[in-house]
Amino acid sequence: MKSLLTLFLVFDFLTSGTHVMIEVWGKPNSLKNAKNLGNITWNSCMMACHGSEVCIIAHLRSQACYLYNEVAMGTVNRTKPQNMVVAFKANATNANGECFDVEPIEISGAIFHYKNTSENPKWIHYTISLSGNQWKVVYRLKTISISMKSELSVSSRDVVKNVKSIGQLATFGPRSNDRDKRRIYKNNYSCSDGTWAVFRSDSSIACYTKLYAVQGPGDFNYTYSKTGCEQQSGSPLAGLHYKEDMSYMNSLVEALKPVKGLDSFYSRIDGIRTTACQKTPTTEYCMSVKGFNFVGQPVKSFDSYNWVTNSSSREKSGYDCLVLVSDKKKPLRVDVKSCTKNSPLTVQLVFCSKPAFT
Ligand SMILES: *[C@@H]1O[C@H](CO)[C@@H](O)[C@H](O)[C@H]1NC(C)=O
Ligand SMILES: *[C@@H]1O[C@H](CO)[C@@H](O)[C@H](O)[C@H]1NC(C)=O
Ligand SMILES: *[C@@H]1O[C@H](CO)[C@@H](O)[C@H](O)[C@H]1NC(C)=O
Ligand SMILES: *[C@@H]1O[C@H](CO)[C@@H](O)[C@H](O)[C@H]1NC(C)=O
Ligand SMILES: *[C@@H]1O[C@H](CO)[C@@H](O)[C@H](O)[C@H]1NC(C)=O
Ligand SMILES: *[C@@H]1O[C@H](CO)[C@@H](O)[C@H](O)[C@H]1NC(C)=O
Ligand SMILES: *[C@@H]1O[C@H](CO)[C@@H](O)[C@H](O)[C@H]1NC(C)=O
After folding, report:
1. What is the pTM of this model?
2. What average pLDDT does range 169-187 have in this prediction?
3. Does 52 have pLDDT greater than 90?
4. 175 and 187 in contact (C-beta within 8 Å)?
5. Distance from the alpha carbon of residue 287 to the mean position of ligand 6, in angstroms
6. Which has the higher per-residue pLDDT, 183 or 104?
7. What is the whole-number distance in angstroms between the Cα of residue 147 and the centre of ligand 7?
8. What is the per-residue pLDDT for 318?
9. Which residue's CA lies nearest to atom 3 of ligand 7?
10. CB burial class (10 A; 0-12, 13-18, 19+) of residue 150?
11. Minimal-distance CA residue to ligand 7 atom 8
12. Which UniProt keywords apply (predicted)?
């Protein structure tokens, strides 16, 4: 019963999202104070904004992703369809309907800043509105006084609420090709609500969900993670198949680091060494994908895997499960670690995915 309870607590914040990203054609008038995340996909760019406490717009230009806070945003000119794209973060009440048929002229939202205990937490309420051909933002700050104990207890719940928003990402279907329809917003879903669509190079779409605990590492052993994925979204653990999967996972890991205040941890993905190969992990057969069982779509090859060492790694008995290793500033790598223990790093994140419906 205890484990079931924990399971639901974990899932609760994943299903009650507070923000969505709304795409419009537009061009910010300055890149100067934007945060440049470099060459990542548009989906990952929107997701990074969604996952960031401080971002309110994402923008893609010359294959680089730019994120803006309320101060950096300045003005955004509306552009022709298919010209340049921005996505505004909005609180979820802005997007009650599944799609927008008319252009929203006002998008509002609130972001919560609570960096550390020596700084007063504050809300930033903003409204982005279209006037003539330009989007502008107005915002106001609402600081919560640390000295007011009752307010603070409210704000600590709000911190959790803010973390919740990262669990919920709006889902975007493929863009409309209809050039006359001058706007695209939340398009038709290819992935169900509450999941994130990753578009791969072969045109397949995977719908991702994830598990993480609001506090602490969570007891994300292999079995619990597998069951958790199934219960939450009917998805198996996510396999690492394409570089787009890796890029998505990487951006989520990056988004989680500041939330958790950690730069080193594991994320669980699909793949557990077969019982037979636990005895002979170093044979060519056992080092190949044949040496592992996958609960989702079987992984075809480890060719693109960035291993810490290689797939034969088995430092200790029971180190048979694939994990992504986030280790300080090093790029995300794959290793074979304990299926049951948080060891030596803790498991903070679990990826689940299934193919989109088309
Ligand atoms: C961005 O990444 C893509 C895919 O990895 C690559 O084809 C492209 O050349 C890169 N663009 C730039 C400007 O680095
Ligand atoms: C944006 O629109 C304003 C007003 O229409 C115009 O003055 C300005 O030149 C535009 N900026 C860009 C970068 O196109
Ligand atoms: C959405 O944002 C507006 C403007 O800040 C606010 O008035 C409204 O209460 C917000 N809705 C929710 C559900 O947070
Ligand atoms: C906490 O906030 C204060 C006030 O803004 C700042 O001076 C300090 O560097 C912050 N500490 C950390 C660890 O971020
Ligand atoms: C979205 O796609 C589903 C399934 O293909 C279809 O039944 C539905 O009518 C579509 N909705 C819109 C708004 O296009
Ligand atoms: C695999 O990595 C181990 C270290 O973990 C190393 O000793 C071994 O030589 C490597 N095997 C291959 C085939 O690269
Ligand atoms: C996995 O975690 C769950 C939930 O905490 C626990 O009930 C179960 O006993 C664990 N299984 C193993 C093999 O450690």
Report:
1. 0.53
2. 30
3. no
4. yes
5. 10
6. 104
7. 41
8. 96
9. 224
10. exposed
11. 224
12. Signal
Average pLDDT over residues 164-192: 33
Can you tell me the distance from the alpha carbon of 125 to that of 141, in angstroms, rounded to the nearest whole number? 6
- Residue whose entry in the numeric block shows the structure tokens 């969604």: 50
Q: How close are the terminal C-alpha atoms of the chain, in Å? A: 38
Kindly list the protein residues whose Cβ atom lies closer than 6 A to any atom of ligand 4. Answer: 115-116, 118-119
- What does the pLDDT look like over 104-132, one tens digit per residue? 788 888 776 655 445 555 678 899 999 98
Q: Does domain 196-355 have CATH number 3.10.100.10?
A: yes
Contact indicator for 59, 131 with CB cutoff of 8 Å: no
**Nearest by Cα to 308 from 266, 257, 356:** 266
pLDDT digits (tens, 9 = 90+) for 18-34: 567 777 788 999 999 99
Domain with CATH 3.10.100.10 in the chain: 196-355
Tell whether the model's pLDDT for residue 48 goes beyond 90. Answer: no
The predicted model gives 265-290 an average pLDDT of 97
Distance 173 CA to ligand 6 centre (A): 42
CB 21 within 8 A of CB 169: yes
Return the residue whose CA atom lies nearest to atom 5 of ligand 4. Answer: 119
Q: Whose CA is nearest to atom 10 of ligand 4?
A: 116
Helices (H), the chain: 2-15, 42-51, 149-167, 222-233, 243-260, 275-279, 284-287
Which atom number of ligand 5 is nearest to the Cα of residue 189? 1
Q: How far does CA 220 lie from the centroid of its chain?
A: 18
User: Which tokens sit at 31?
Assistant: 């890149």
Of 118, 120, 143, 257, which is best to mutate to test ligand 4, by the most ligand atoms within 8 angstroms of its C-beta? 118
Provide the token pair at 251.
Answer: 């951006």
Minimal CA–CA distance to 79: which of 184, 176, 177, 172?
Answer: 184
The pLDDT, as a whole number, for residue 159 is 31
DSSP code string of 10-50: HHHHHHS--EEEEEEEEEES--TTSEEEES--HHHHHHHHH
